[in-house]
Design brief:
Layout lengths: L19 H14 L11 H19 L3 H4 L18 H19 L9 H19 L16 H11 L5 H11 L2 H18 L5 H16 L18 H33 L12 H13 L4 H28 L4 H10 L8 H19 L11 E5 L12 E3 L8 E5 L9 H11 L4 H9 L14 H17 L6 H9 L3 H10 L5 H7 L1
Parallel strand pairs: 1-3
Antiparallel strand pairs: 2-3
Helix pairs in contact: 2-4, 2-5, 4-5, 5-11, 7-10, 8-10, 9-10, 12-13, 12-18, 12-19, 14-15, 15-17, 15-18
C-alpha cells in the first residue's frame, strides 16, 4: 500500500518579474500558433490543487528540509541529505511570500469541483495549513525559539540518527550538512538577540532546562555528540571517521558551547519570568492564533476553557462512579490517591516500566486487530530517551518512520517512573501505539494516491483526538488489565483545555496549574 512513486522536491516557482520577457514571448508565439482566436481550455481544478501543493511543499522544504525526517516521509519525498534548516530572516520571508502567493490561488478553487477525493483532501489540508501559518505570524516564534521539548538540541538528534551514510555520496552529504550547524546556531543566536530587543523571550525556566540539556551533551565529549550518531554506521571508512572527529572537536562542540554560553550568560538573565504567552508583544493574539492552529476551530480561549470545564466535571463524576466501586473511595481526590497507592498498580524500577511496556505493546496490537479491517504492517518499538534528555521534562511521544526503513518508535519517558502507575502506563502505551498514534499514522502513510505534502501537514486536534478516542477503544477491547487504567483514563482528559487557558489567559500560577492537573 505504499505510494506509487517517490516525489522529488519540485523547483521553486519563478519569482515575480523573473523571466518576464521570455514568458511574454512564449505567450505571443502560442497565440500566433493558435490563430489568435482559440480559447484555452479551463484548467483542471485538481491539477491546479496539486500544483499549489507542489509549490508549497518546495517552499517548506527550502526552509525546513528536516520536516521529511520528522514526518517519517522519506518514502515519498526525496530528502536532501546535505541540507540544513534555514533559520535566516530571508528564508522566513521567502516562506511567507509563498504562503501569500498560494493562498488566494487556492481560494479561487471550489472544492465541490474536485472530482478526485485525494484532491479534495489536499485542498482542505492546504486551506487549513495556509490560514493557520498566516495567523501564526503574529507570534514571531522565531524570535523566542528556545524549547526544552522540541528545540533543535532535541529534534536534530533524530535527523542525525536517520542520516544515510551507506554510500560515498551519503557520507559526503552528511559532512556537508553538519558542517552547517555552527552557522545555524550563530543565526539562532542573532534571532534570539533580536527578539530580546523587541521584547520577546522564552520563559526563564524553559531556558534553564535547555541549558541543562546542552550541559549534558557537552559533558559527554565531542566524540559523543548525538548530532554525529550516524558515524557509527559508516563501517571502516577511516577518512570519513577522521573528518567526523575533526568536525566534532573543531567545529560542532565549540559552536554548541558558544550557544550554551549565550543562553546562560546573556539570554537567561533577560528571559521572562512569566510563563504566560500574554507577557509577549501581541500575546493575546498569539495565543488565539496558537489555539486556532492546534485545534483548527476559531472558537477562542474562553470557549475552549468552558468546554474543558464541562468535560472535566463529567469525567470527575465518572471517576467517582467507577473508582468508588473499585477502591472504596468516596470522592475524586480520595479515589485517585487510592489508585496511586495500590501496590499492584506500581512499578519497582525503571527497567520494569520499560520491559512491561514492551510486553504490553504486543498485547495491544493483538487485541486491536479484531476492531479494524486491517492493521498496518509496520511494527513499533519502545525506547527510552537518551541520557542527554534525562531529567529535562520530556513527555512520551511517537516518532514515525518510513515503513521500509524499519519500525516506528514509542519514546517512553521514565524520569518519574517511581510515580508512574501501571494504569497510567497502559493508557500512554495505547495512546502512542496500538490503536493510537502508530495505528493511525502508519495506516495513513500507507494510503496510495495522496499528495506527499499531506505527510508534512496535519491536524493536531485530529491526531490527538484519535489517540484519546483510542483509549476508549482499548477499554472496550479489554486492553486494560486491571480497573485502574479505566479509572485513570477518565481522570485526566480535557484538563489541558482548562489548565492551558488558565495559565495563559486567566493568570493562573504554575503551582495552580500543577494542583489542577
Amino acid at each position: 500500500m505504499k505510494s506509487n512513486a517517490r516525489i522529488s522536491r519540485p523547483p521553486l516557482p519563478l519569482l515575480a518579474g523573473e523571466g518576464t520577457g521570455a514568458l511574454l514571448l512564449a505567450s505571443a508565439l502560442l497565440l500566433a500558433a493558435c490563430g489568435g482566436g482559440a480559447k484555452t481550455p479551463p484548467a483542471d481544478p485538481g491539477a491546479v490543487v496539486r500544483a499549489i501543493a507542489d509549490e508549497y511543499m518546495a517552499a517548506i522544504l527550502d526552509v525546513a528540509p528536516f520536516a521529511v525526517v520528522y514526518a517519517g516521509a522519506g518514502d515519498v519525498i526525496d530528502e536532501d541529505g546535505a541540507a540544513m534548516e534555514d533559520n535566516s530572516p530571508r528564508a522566513l520571508a521567502r516562506l511567507r511570500a509563498a504562503e501569500d502567493r498560494l493562498a488566494p490561488r487556492l481560494a479561487k478553487i471550489d472544492p465541490a469541483s474536485l472530482a478526485a477525493r485525494a484532491d479534495w483532501v489536499t485542498w482542505q489540508t492546504l486551506t487549513e495549513a495556509l490560514a493557520a501559518a498566516q495567523g501564526m505570524r503574529v507570534c514571531e516564534a522565531h524570535l523566542w525559539n528556545v524549547n526544552h521539548m522540541s528545540g533543535w538540541q532535541n529534534s536534530f538528534m533524530s535527523v542525525a540518527d536517520a542520516q544515510d551514510v551507506s554510500t560515498t555520496v551519503g557520507r559526503a552529504e552528511a559532512l556537508a550538512r553538519w558542517r552547517k550547524l555552527p552557522a545555524y546556531l550563530a543565526q539562532e543566536t542573532a534571532n534570539l538577540r533580536a527578539g530580546l530587543s523587541a521584547g520577546y523571550s522564552a520563559p526563564r525556566r524553559v531556558v534553564a532546562r535547555v541549558i541543562g540539556q546542552l550541559d549534558r551533551i557537552l559533558a559527554a565529549g565531542p566524540e559523543q555528540l548525538p548530532y554525529l550518531s550516524f558515524a557509527a554506521k559508516a563501517g571502516g571508512d577511516e577518512k570519513f571517521a577522521a573528518a567526523i572527529k575533526a568536525l566534532a572537536a573543531d567545529d560542532l562542540a565549540p559552536a554548541i558551547a558558544a550557544y550554551r554560553d549565550f543562553l546562560r550568560d546573556e539570554y537567561l538573565p533577560a528571559a521572562r519570568a512569566d510563563l504566560s504567552i500574554y507577557a509577549l508583544p501581541n500575546g493575546k493574539a498569539c495565543y488565539e492564533a496558537m489555539l486556532r492552529q492546534y485545534h483548527t476551530a476559531a472558537i477562542g480561549a474562553q470557549a475552549t476553557f468552558a468546554r474543558g470545564q464541562a468535560a472535566v466535571e463529567a469525567n470527575r463524576k465518572a471517576v467517582i462512579d467507577r473508582g468508588g466501586a473499585l477502591t472504596g473511595g468516596s470522592d475524586f481526590a480520595d479515589i485517585l490517591a487510592r489508585v496511586k497507592a495500590a501496590r499492584e498498580n506500581r512499578f519497582s524500577s525503571e527497567r520494569e516500566l520499560i520491559d512491561w511496556t514492551r510486553a504490553m505493546i504486543a498485547v495491544t496490537k493483538e487485541k486491536s486487530a479484531p476492531m479494524f479491517a486491517q492493521l498496518p504492517a509496520q511494527e513499533m518499538i519502545v525506547e527510552p530517551f537518551p541520557p542527554s534528555l534525562e531529567g529535562t521534562g520530556q513527555s512520551s511521544r511517537y516518532e514515525p518512520r518510513p515503513a521500509a526503513e524499519g519500525p516506528a518508535t514509542y519514546r517512553i519517558a521514565t524520569d518519574e517512573w517511581a510515580d508512574q502507575t501501571r494504569g497510567e502506563a497502559e493508557i500512554v502505551a495505547v495512546h502512542e501505539g496500538w490503536p493510537g498514534h502508530h495505528l493511525q499514522m502508519a495506516a495513513a502513510a500507507s494510503i496510495e494516491g495522496l499528495h506527499p505534502i499531506l505527510r508534512l501537514l496535519g491536524s493536531t486536534a485530529y491526531i490527538e483526538g484519535w489517540a484519546r478516542y483510542s483509549e476508549m477503544l482499548a477499554e472496550e477491547a479489554g486492553l486494560y488489565a486491571t480497573g485502574y487504567g479505566a479509572v485513570s483514563r477518565r481522570a485526566w482528559p480535557a484538563r489541558g483545555m482548562v489548565a492551558d487557558p488558565g495559565l495563559h489567559v486567566y493568570g493562573w500560577t504554575n503551582d495552580e496549574v500543577k494542583a489542577f492537573v
